[in-house]
Structures are given as structure tokens and as C-alpha cells.
Write a structure and sequence with these properties.
Distance between the termini: 22 Å
Shape: elongated
Order of helices and strands: EHEEHEEHEEHEEHEE
Radius of gyration: 19 Å
Oligomer: single chain
Structural class: alpha+beta
Strand content: 25-35%
Helix content: 10-25%
Length: 232
């Protein structure tokens, strides 16, 4: 049996690394005393995984963890035990069992970005949305030429933007592929680099609102089906 849960990474823990987030969840599974399955071998480890790594500093309302259980367990009982074991900053939003393989599921994510900005944005966002291709050159010290080029439009086709009280809000969807995705902060740097904006990237509040699967025809599908609605 595989238990999948939609969990959060809230503001008070947004600056912990992905690895530490994973370790926190592992410790909670152990404290909850779920009948979790372990790998075989000299150094057995818990069989669980997360759908997609989240950047440091990013808040999320839609992280997904999948736990392989060695024996059947009612979803609501597992949720109750995990809820009592999780620390502040991580909540369970929904849960289901026997979902499709998690690591192969994620096809995209919705983001909300809020940051201080009183400059012009309408023309820049319109130009981005109209462009067929926008290549962002990102520093990549591990590569031979130290530069990684990203076709931003492959991942993000359109941005919705509004400005109020000198605060700019951006909403967009970002594609996730088996070879990776791109960071929301890289979109902000792209707008600065290619479209003349001067966004203070370091002051951006970034939230992942949703994570979803992508059907072959492009339709969005939920990561959880047949959810336990008692915890929503």
C-alpha cells in the first residue's frame, strides 16, 4: 500500500533546505510509528519520496509525500498519527492511497510571487507573453562554460500580473519534466535581463500554490484522486 499526502512548507520553515525538509518528514514517519516499509540490505532505509524539490526560501501549499506501507492502514488513521508527529510549519491538507507512481507524476506547478515594485510592468509582461522564445543565461559554476541557457518559454508560457500599493503580484504555471524544471526566481531574473524591469528578486515572497500531473493531451490532472475529504 502506498500512502500519498499533500503537505505544506510554511513561512516559518521556508529557509530550511530540501534535504532537511526530507529528514524532518522521515523523523515524523518514525515518531508516528506507521507500518512503513524499509529497503533491504546492510543499511535499510524508509521507503518514501517527495514529488519535486522546492527551492530554499519558497513557501508551498502543495508538497506531496508518498510513503510505502508494509501493511494496509486506514488513510484517516495514518493522517491522524502523522499530524501528531509533524512539527510546526508542516500540515497535511489531503491524503489518498494507491496513487500512480509519485516521481513520474508531477507535470507542472502553479506559483504566486509578491514583491515590492512601483515601476512599469504592463509592457514588459505583455512582451514576455507574446514572445515565442526567451533564453535566460544563468550562471552554472559546475558546467564547463560556466553558463546554462534556459528557454524560459518552454517552462512558463504566460504570466498574469497586477500592481497595487507599490506591490507587484505575478501568477504563472511552470512545467516540470523528467529532466527538471526552472525556479521562480529565474523568471524574475529573466524579466530583468530581457525586458528592462528592475525587480528586487531578493525581496520576493514565492509560494507554490499547486502541483499537478499533465495528461498526454495537456490536461491538468490532480496529484491526489479519491482523497480523504475529512481532512481538507
Amino acid at each position: 500500500m502506498k500512502l500519498r499526502m499533500q503537505i505544506t512548507k510554511e513561512k516559518e520553515i521556508r529557509f530550511i533546505s530540501h534535504l532537511e525538509y526530507v529528514r524532518t518528514i522521515e523523523r515524523a514517519i518514525r515518531r508516528a510509528k506507521l507500518p512503513a516499509a524499509y529497503s533491504e540490505g546492510f543499511n535499510p532505509h524508509l521507503k518514501f519520496s517527495l514529488a519535486s524539490a522546492l527551492g530554499v526560501g519558497v513557501v508551498s501549499m502543495a508538497e506531496f509525500v508518498e510513503i510505502e506501507l508494509a501493511e494496509p492502514m486506514e488513510v484517516h488513521e495514518a493522517v491522524q498519527k502523522m499530524t501528531a508527529a509533524l512539527p510546526r510549519g508542516i500540515q497535511i491538507m489531503a491524503a489518498a492511497n494507491n496513487a500512480p507512481a509519485l516521481m513520474a507524476s508531477a507535470g507542472g506547478a502553479d506559483y504566486l510571487v509578491v514583491l515590492p515594485y512601483s515601476g512599469e510592468y504592463v509592457e514588459a509582461v505583455a512582451a514576455f507573453n507574446a514572445a515565442e522564445s526567451v533564453v535566460y543565461a544563468k550562471a552554472a559554476p559546475k558546467l564547463k562554460n560556466k553558463i546554462k541557457e534556459i528557454d524560459v518559454k518552454f517552462y512558463i508560457s504566460e504570466i498574469c500580473a497586477k500592481q497595487e500599493n507599490d506591490m507587484l503580484t505575478l501568477k504563472f504555471s511552470c512545467r516540470i519534466t523528467p529532466n527538471g524544471s526552472m525556479k521562480a526566481a529565474d523568471l524574475l531574473n529573466t524579466l530583468n535581463q530581457h525586458f528592462g524591469m528592475q525587480l528586487p528578486v531578493e525581496k520576493a515572497d514565492i509560494t507554490r500554490l499547486d502541483l499537478y500531473r499533465a495528461a498526454a493531451d495537456g490536461r491538468r490532472l490532480p496529484m491526489l484522486e479519491h482523497m480523504d475529504k475529512s481532512i481538507q
